[in-house]
Amino acid sequence: MFNLFKKKKSEPSRGDQYLSLKIREIVKETPDTVSIYFEQPEPYLDYKPGQFITVILDINGKEERRSYSLCTSPFVDPFPGISVKRVSGGIVSNYLNDQLRPGKTMEIMKPMGNFTKDFHSKNNIQYFMIAGGSGITPIMGLIKSILINEPSSKVTLLFCSRNEEQIIFKKNIDLLASQHPEKLEVIHNLSQPSADWTGMKGRLDSTKVKEVLSWSEDASKSEKRYFVCGPEGLMSTTLNTLKELNIPESIIHEESFYSDLDAKEAAMKASGEIGPSLTREITVNVEGQDYTYEVAPDKTILEAGLDNNVDMPYSCQSGLCTACRGRLVSGKVDMIEDAGLSAGEIADGYILCCSSKAASSDIKIIIE
Ligand SMILES: Cc1cc2nc3c(=O)[nH]c(=O)nc-3n(C[C@H](O)[C@H](O)[C@H](O)COP(=O)(O)OP(=O)(O)OC[C@H]3O[C@@H](n4cnc5c(N)ncnc54)[C@H](O)[C@@H]3O)c2cc1C
Ligand code: FES
């Protein structure tokens, strides 16, 4: 299924899933975050709220790909947009904050991702959205979509930022809350607020999550849904709290933006979960064609494939988006990050090539 996202290195014209978007407007949201809005292409960009696009840029002669969630709603916003927060020392986030101008075009891969849902006017759902920093981006598109499509549903947003200046979409969120006072409740938590701040403050912990859930509980809503997106600490605190409260995983949606694969690999090696890596020859079947190549210990299966000019699909390169998913039909891999895969996919033998190292000599992977 993921061959849609392949980049044909040898072909100048790219497949249907690649397109150029023209930048319409750039809005500075906070000192370190910009929103980039695009002109609608022909035909219109088809996406679901909460999905992400992959931007493909040439920076200093090297192709860089990064995933960015759409902050817009296809039901509300005429132009699709992304919001990008600077990461200290980051190549793409700083380029996007500093180097773009309206009128410039940008190559992307079309939207993908499962941090979304269907919307129905009959739904009577209580949504809890817990976001931190740039994690508000997909949640913004989801909230707008719920408010317009589901008159009986209610949204509680717990949004964690560093200080007042760093609250992304502050004006838009305030506006939505004033337009929908019965349907949208917003609680800001600031980790380093000014002395004037009277709201929730300090690090998000389990007590705060529980407090917000119980304050906002609406007994008239029998169905509940949880969406969580933000830095690793916020994600683990929130997800552990939801687990403690016996909230079924099936109604929790989570999206991670970052995974430190090197640190995870080192921890897995230290705990004996994975053994030392060796150079292995492996075979990857892409769209029916076999490619055999060596994977050195310091390379992932994706990195080695790309080094050997194998047309493998990919996007985030962090084990989060599943664009590089393949089925392991023989051999063994050490998968450092599997957050993008469901338990069912793992049980069915699926692996993520961008976060897997070769761990035996008879590896065969099929990418469909
Ligand atoms: C599905 C998905 C959706 C995403 N949506 C958004 C979005 O809507 N808005 C947004 O701003 N970002 C989003 N991201 C993150 C984005 O793709 C990039 O990872 C981020 O912009 C950093 O890229 P960079 O090139 O600036 O940093 P890099 O040059 O890749 O990294 C620089 C250094 O920072 C570390 N690093 C990279 N990212 C992070 C991070 N998030 N936290 C801590 N350390 C980090 C790296 O390990 C490295 O040491 C998303 C990621 C995924 C997987
Ligand atoms: S490229 Fe995103 S999970 Fe591998």
CATH level-1 class of the largest domain: Alpha Beta
Taken as a percent bin, the fraction of beta residues is 25-35%
Figure out the total of helices. 8
What class do helices, strands and sheet pairing give?
alpha/beta
Say which CATH homologous superfamily of the largest domain is assigned. Answer: Nucleotide-binding domain of ferredoxin-NADP reductase (FNR) module
Principal-axes geometry comes out as globular
Uncertain runs with pLDDT below 50, 5 residues or more? 1-14
CATH architecture of the largest domain, please?
Answer: 3-Layer(aba) Sandwich
Number of strands: 19
Outline the structure in words:
It is a single chain. The protein has helices at residues 91-98, 136-149, 170-179, 206-216, 232-244, 261-270, 301-307, 343-347; strands at residues 18-30, 33-38, 52-59, 62-69, 81-85, 105-112, 125-132, 154-161, 184-190, 200-201, 223-229, 252-255, 280-286, 289-295, 325-330, 333-335, 350-352, 356-358, 364-367. The protein is of the alpha/beta class and 368 residues long. It folds into 3 domains: 2-112, Translation factors (Elongation Factor Tu (Ef-tu), domain 3); 125-255, 3-Layer(aba) Sandwich (Rossmann fold), CATH 3.40.50.80; 274-367, Ubiquitin-like (UB roll) (Roll). The strands form 4 sheets. Strands 4-3-6-1-2-5 form a 6-stranded antiparallel β-sheet, with helices on one face. Helix 5 links the parallel strand 11 and strand 12. The longest helix is centred in the middle third of the chain and has 14 residues, at 136-149. The protein is globular. Residues 1-14 have low confidence and may be disordered. Flavin-adenine dinucleotide (FAD) is lined by residues 52, 66-69, 82-85, 87, 89-94, 113, 134, 137, 255, 257-258, 260, 316, 318, 320-321.
